[in-house]
Amino acid sequence: MDDKIQNIKSNMIKADYICNDKTATVLYLAEALQKPILVEGPAGVGKTAIAQAFSRMKGIPLIRLQCYEGIDESKALYEWNYKRQLLHIQAAINQDTRQVEEEIFSDTFLLSRPLLSSIVSDTPTVLLIDEIDKVDFEFEALLLELLSEFQITIPELGTIKAKHIPYVFLTSNASRELSEALKRRCLYLYLDFPSRDMEEQILLLKVPDLSEQLAEKVAGVMRRIRGVEMKKLPSIAESIDWASSLMWLGKDDVDVETMLQTLNTLVKHHEDLEKIERLLYSRQDLEFR
Q1: Strand locations in the chain, DSSP E?
Q2: Could you report the per-residue pLDDT of 209-231, keeping only the tens digit for each?
Q3: Which of 6, 8, 124, 135 is the most exposed place for a label (fewest CB within 10 A)?
């Protein structure tokens, strides 16, 4: 078992994603048990990236459904090509009505959306259902058949079973509580901001030519900043941007002056910017360790 977990960690690194033993174990079990993974955690910790990296690791397509308030089955599951159906009806005006009805409700006139596309794909896929917490409980109910049985029922066509069971990732920022029915169908993975050591590894992986000394310094500063109460804590992506910016500016160390000069790379809200600036100005001897 340990060898399999370490193998996943190694292959994920090759796909530009660093994960710990706990995360690698969930990935292994999701594949072994053919279960979706519900990935929860604050914004910017790599929830979407883990599905993207898993897709690269497997060498298979990623199908992404970006959730938003008000999304319905016509955007997520399928819809009928009404214009084409109407043209077919007009062209077949002298044909048998029952035959025409069967023809217009066939695969030819069906428009696949992400969920259906992942089911009918001729090759295995990774299905990413991003920010599931933005939809309502009614939309969650649409997902239950797919998440438990890997099939979709279309009233006019019947039940369509997956040609290949997709690897399913659902992400959530925990802006609302998800239904127990949805949670029961998934393995659960909570991602938090990385430890200082792991963030240092991420920076060295993502920023070419970054020195270990600067990576260690940046990781330490990020841990310090995330300890401040802010409207939005800097994400891992912003940590990477900051490290890249320091390199472009020719910096090999991080001090208060450098922080003030490059703070806009990390902080994206005016209130947070003022708070960190006040902290830096009031503590010129601030040590980022």
Answers
A1: 37-40, 62-66, 78-80, 110-112, 126-130, 151-154, 158-161, 167-172, 187-190
A2: 899 999 999 999 999 899 899 99
A3: 6
